[in-house]
Amino acid sequence: MIDVKELKRKGEMRLRLNDKVENRETYEIPLDRLYYNDRNGRIATFIDEERVREGHSRQEILALKQDDVERYNDLIGKAVKEAEKKDSYEKTLRDVQEKGQMVPGVVLADGRIIDGNRRFTVLRELYRKKGEQRFSTFEACVLDVPEGKDAWRAIAILELELQENRDEKRDYSPIDKNVSFYKLCLNKETKTLDERTYQTYSGATDKEMAQMKSQVELMLEYLEWRGTPQAFYLLKEEELHGPIVEIANRKKKMTDDFWINHRDYFFAMLSNLSGDKTRQIREVLEMAAKNPSRYESLERQLQEKDYLQRTGNLLTKESEGLLNGKDGAERNVLKNELEEVLSDNIVESKKETSQNKPVALMKEALGRCQKIMWQDIRETTTENRKELKILLGQIEKELAKIKGYLPE
Hints:
Layout: E1 8-17, E2 20-30, H1 41-54, H2 58-67, H3 69-83, H4 86-99, E3 105-108, E4 113-115, H5 117-130, E5 137-143, H6 149-164, H7 167-170, H8 174-186, H9 195-202, H10 206-225, H11 233-237, H12 241-251, H13 256-272, H14 277-290, H15 292-304, H16 307-319, H17 325-370, H18 374-379, H19 382-405
Parallel strand pairs: 3-5
Antiparallel strand pairs: 1-2, 2-5, 3-4
């Protein structure tokens, strides 16, 4: 445990905890007394990622906090650095090297970092490279280790508030933000905050909350489908945030039956897309909504190639760590086949949609006209009736033009 009596006092920082704002003393804390917060959604994702890369179980990685904290911090620090935008991380590194740590962090008395992961990572890197004592400590205020659910809730709110306006927060992957929301508010095992509290302290709008929730639900469903439950790091590695957003937005307009009938093909495409994945999945969804006969043709072509079964076999082997060289070749074949089928059908769909555009617009116009009831006309103002007559005259002229375009 960190005893502030043994530390050098550095300064003060203003902090709000339990809705009470206070000036708290900050201290210079040796780097080897600190560790990354595994309760943080973003760090938890890094742990899952390193678990797969290094071949450790989650329990083994967490055990390093006690047995070899340096090794634990090395594993997570590597993931933190790789996840940052290179220019943002390098800017922080240069700033700390030239000016020192300008913004204090927040840690618990057991060494858990609540705020300041990037600064901690940069300091560890600089100390190893330069060996200068000015990089050997992390300035932070020290809070008591929470006891009980309410105390952890206060820490979660503090972390949310502090990080929302930090540069680090703005550089977070949208996947990381969704995972943090999921772990804080939706996961029964890790839930600390209710959704209303999260919204209050994060500043998210109602629309943003609804979007995050629908995206998280889809992320969970997709990862479960591919046999890798909650392996959120895969979504980052495969750059699937954009496609996830597209599908989640479109899914709101689908019937349950439509989603159930076509979900497997959407997900199979999601796992094999290459190039501009967001644009491709958007065009597929547009096709499914506006040109269903063409979309059904696309699915039939994939069905003839036994696409779902082959994709499922590959994902099963991947989740079990049994992939070999032949499987890599099969993955490329699946990607190429999908690219060819999508390219052909998207081009044809756009052509067919363009050809059907006049009829579709006329049907839309007819539908709008049919919504105007005589009661509406009777109850409107005299000025509106005059304007309506003018508009009807303009519409009649346009209809006459259109009739003139049509062959006898």
